[in-house]
Amino acid sequence: MDLDPKPGSGLKSEEVMRRHILPKALVIGLVAGLISSAFREVLQWSEIHRIAWLHQLSSMERLLAAVCVGAAGGGLGLWLVRRFAPEASGSGIPHIKSVVLGEEQLRWWRVLPVKFFGGLASIGGGLALGREGPTIQIGGATGLLVSTWFRVKPGEGERKALISAGAGAGLAAAFNAPLAGVIFVLEELHGAFTPVIFVAAFLASVTADVVCRVLTGETPVFALQGMPVPSLNALPVALVVGAIAGFGGVLFNRCLLASLDGFERLRRWPPFALGALVGLTVGFAAWIYPEVSGSGVLLAEHAMAGEIAIRGVVVLVAARFLLTMLSYGSGSAGGIFAPLLVIGALAGLAVGSAAHWIAPTWAGHPEVFAVLGMGALLTSTVRAPLTGIVLMIELTGKYDYMLPLLVSCFVAYGIAEAMNNVPIYEALRERTKRRAEAAASG
Hints:
Blueprint: H1 13-18, H2 21-56, H3 59-84, H4 93-100, H5 108-125, H6 132-149, H7 158-175, H8 178-190, H9 195-216, H10 235-264, H11 271-288, H12 297-304, H13 310-329, H14 337-358, H15 368-382, H16 385-396, H17 402-418, H18 424-441
Helix pairs in contact: 2-5, 2-6, 2-7, 2-9, 3-5, 3-11, 4-18, 5-6, 6-7, 7-8, 7-9, 8-9, 8-16, 10-13, 10-14, 10-15, 10-17, 11-13, 12-14, 13-14, 14-15, 15-16, 15-17, 16-17
């Protein structure tokens, strides 16, 4: 069942085309769409009800409930990962990329259940992580699972194409974003256009998106009703948002790696105890403000609605940043897409509010810049500008935001490139590779 871990991408289009990859890609999209939709719906239900429940409690009751739920979810989630599938820690995207490159094997029969239930425990308990990383890894594992159904032989071509298609399907189902799923596969997983990979990822992503829309609804994840279209006057502020996001993305990457190194020193702690400690810390923050915990989708919605005062925005940016470092550094199952989107939305709102106070004609609606901040920070951190731009358009349904998004995202990309900062998923993959080599030699 394992993938043959030979070096290089080895995507031989002649070999893959002969094996009729298209029906398999459709099946992958269907299966990945079903699993990812279930993960998304259960996680969304648990988060909404957890936050609503906390708001109904008195102060002391909320404190007790938040820390208990956080500790239980964090402890169980990390224990599942450490005990059954260590490769399911974090977002899982670096692992899928290593599999595609032939550097690691993919144990789908372990990754699928651990990522699903470990992610539900951790994120549902309040850890500041997102669902997109888990669904991408779940989708990749689904791709390998389906290849075993069709008895695809281990080798250099078809299995890797199917894993890539599954990863794109996972992202498409996580955000109702089929185009972003395709571009993510080409831009991030492979870094090059291959016709076979494009067609497989396209079919799987569209199929998964259709399944997800049937099961979860057709509206964008962030339905921005009545939000105005930014004019050309907003482009200077969009440039400032991109510049701040560029530096912010570099800071995020460096702090995330430092957090992982710090938690590595606590490796000998029992997994449940370590996860419970992180969950308890996040639970304390949820006692103060419940929306700051979990994926943060509700917090991003408040930012894009302009419902947060600028002084509160600064505090929330700092809180979400620190909670994300703790949550991801612990090694629990969860991604960084959603935390990046939340932090970017809050920071963009802060810049828009400041610009509105200084030059109202340039920033008549500060909440517009929350959308730009999301795309720009994601671009700076992941270094995938096309994915960031297309994802924001599909998330919001605002196709007329293309021009300001281009300005913000490419400014952020340029600054991160100029600072020679390694893209986060590449840095995480290299870190895992160094650790494995050190363990093998020592």
